Amino acid sequence: MANIERFRILVMGRANAGKTTILQRVCNTTDNPEITDGKGNKVFEAKCFQRGHHNIEHELVFSSNPGFVFHDSCGFEAGSAGQFDEMKNFVVNRAVTGSLRKRIHAIWFCIPMTDYHRTVTAAEQKFFNECDTGHVPVIVLLTKADALHLPAMEALLDDGLEVGEAKKKAAEKERELLARWLAHIKGILDKCKFPPKAYISVQKMHEEGADCMALVQCTTNAVNEEGLQRLLISAQQSSIALCVEYAVKK
Question: From what superkingdom does this record's organism come (predicted)?
Fold first, then answer.
């Protein structure tokens, strides 16, 4: 553990799943990350954020929290077989590499609720059927869960409620829809050869000061190695309460 200085996370999922926004909230910043090629050489940032120009080997580090290193795979739902194989090789190699500094410690797999009508794509099922991440836990993030507000309102209005009454019951209906889609996604992915370790929903990540404690706590619980748990707890800066809770438990 003395050789591992930063907690390394691979972030995956469709384009426009809100991945960058989540990383900014976890690191408590609105700035873009510094992107390097893994050898300390800075990469031209604008190009990296364009769809199709992601390089999974590149390291994303936010100056507000250098305790995290992120890797971002492109939205491979429309990618070629070559892109999928590149991602798969990265995952497999970085899960067992002899260089402890280069190993990934967790994978966040983002599925946006803006696409709730196609919650699990063929490409996503392919990942969970073909990519053995070994001891590296995969956590599925249901992102942009607040996008369920509109279908919740539509459902309540279709039930005959007035607009005012529908607004009062919208939050409860959103939770109901989210629980339904979560059960649907779990029902598909849990049957795959290499299912996720955990599931969590995140919402309102576009709002400054959004609470990321649940995501960090879920990731901590999914990581089995106590040393890595300590590393993650020390890297996160969003919750002193989480640090205290972990310290008391241990």
Answer: Eukaryota
